[in-house]
Fold this sequence. Notes:
Its EC number is 6.3.5.-. Pfam families: GatB_N (PF02934), GatB_Yqey (PF02637). Helix 5 runs antiparallel to helix 6, helix 12 crosses helix 14 and helix 12 packs across helix 15. The longest helix is centred in the last third of the chain and has 23 residues. Strands 1, 2, 6, 7, 10, 11, 12, 13 and 14 form a nine-stranded mixed sheet that branches. Helix content is 40%, strand content 18%. With 497 residues, the protein is α+β, with helices and mostly antiparallel strands. It has three domains: 298 residues, no CATH class; 112 residues, no CATH class; 58 residues, Arc Repressor Mutant, subunit A (Orthogonal Bundle), CATH 1.10.10.410. It is built from 15 helices and 16 strands. A hairpin with a 4-residue loop joins strand 13 and strand 14.
Amino acid sequence: MSSYRIHGTTGEWEVVIGLEVHAQVTSNAKLFSGASTEFGSEPNANVSLVDAAMPGMLPVPNRECIRQAVRTGMAIEAQINKWSRFDRKNYFYADLPQGYQISQLYHPLVGEGQLEISPDEKNPDQTKIIGIERIHVEQDAGKLMHDQHPTMSYVDLNRSGVALMEIVSRPDMRSPAEAGAYVRKLRSILRYVGSCDGNMEEGSMRADVNVSVRKPGGELGTRTETKNVNSVRFVMAAIEHEARRQVDVLEEGGTIVQETRLFDPGTGTTRSMRSKEEAHDYRYFPDPDLLPLELDDAFLEECRASLPELPDAKRKRYIEVLGLSAYNAGVLTAEVDTARWFEALLAETAAAQGKAEAHVAKQAANWLISEFFGALNKVGRSLEDSPVSHAQAAELLALIGKGTISATIGKQVLETMFETGDNAAAIVEREGLTQQSDSGAIEAAVDAVLAANGDKVEQYKAGKEALFGFFVGQTMKAMQGKANPQVVNEVLKAKLG
């Protein structure tokens, strides 16, 4: 599907991309302890004896973490393995107090699934399926702090033991745009499901980016892994730089080393971190302190029943039932908070106008996407902290839908609502903005406009019909935008013959 190519001195190169996304499971406790997972706490404030690997401490799996991982697997149409097992991944590092990480290498909780992406947001019907190899659950490590002392590094174990889902894709992506679309779509699904908040800037979702290059259709090249990339934009930038770097190395006669690299957001470049370890370097073996996970049918049924309407199904419903365009449906379903806000607005707008939701859906969608989002951008706010509620917005749309005010006046009222927080009806009454449908007043305004533009009247009658819009505009201007446009059009047509 992708036509993305790296142009080198020896011709075109294709980029092959796979992503390993680490998503922090939404839970009020860690994977094997009851310690808090609150973000922003003081260093080492959220550390239990288990997290610190004190002697004699044994891990106990957090049922909610397992449940959330299973629900995530179901949301991407993946195989849920009723039997899975924890393994110890052994390596030494100062932020890993146990000397090993509890993970799942050989028998993961979730098997193969897939994700449908739309790489081009302006063309949402053009899609591609990205395979997902597995989702396994594992505990996070702590964090080294290098800026607290001139000669020593400190260790913060707040993240030690935090539950992660590692979501491993197939190497099915062929461009930075596809990788960006994949991360956005995955983050959207996680937020819909409620299994991860997707806040990449807080580290609760991050991606390891695997990149290799090859001649189009050729054998797979040697890949590098760029670790812990924490934004969609940085994922795309890391791919662009790393693919270009690999092409330059190969065309100069060099070889690509399988290694782990880091991305520098300041320079937009990657740099070598360490040679890439193979799985056997970690000396994996089953964790002797943990029994295998065995899931029964009742647990799986409860997980499936708890899933919400997911973005693809919601988008389809918006198009087929509500009659929205594919673009508008895509915008409204991309984030769960947007979809919830729209549906609250839609329900209240329909109730205020006494109509079915399908009859007011286009009005509500168009206003939310164009006017409301525009107003939010002006004041630097999001829907979550909007100064105007969906109930207030529904009242405004009802005034427009009932003909009390025109759409043009509605935009003016919306600006005032954002500035003052007042309700639409109060603003309309206070400022005398009610739309005029009195044909007598409108006729008088039309007569004045036609009298002042006699030459254009003659041109119109001679066949220049495009001037009709000019007459409408001049009449609306003369009546300060308060005239009912439908009545204006009717009067003008009668007057102009």
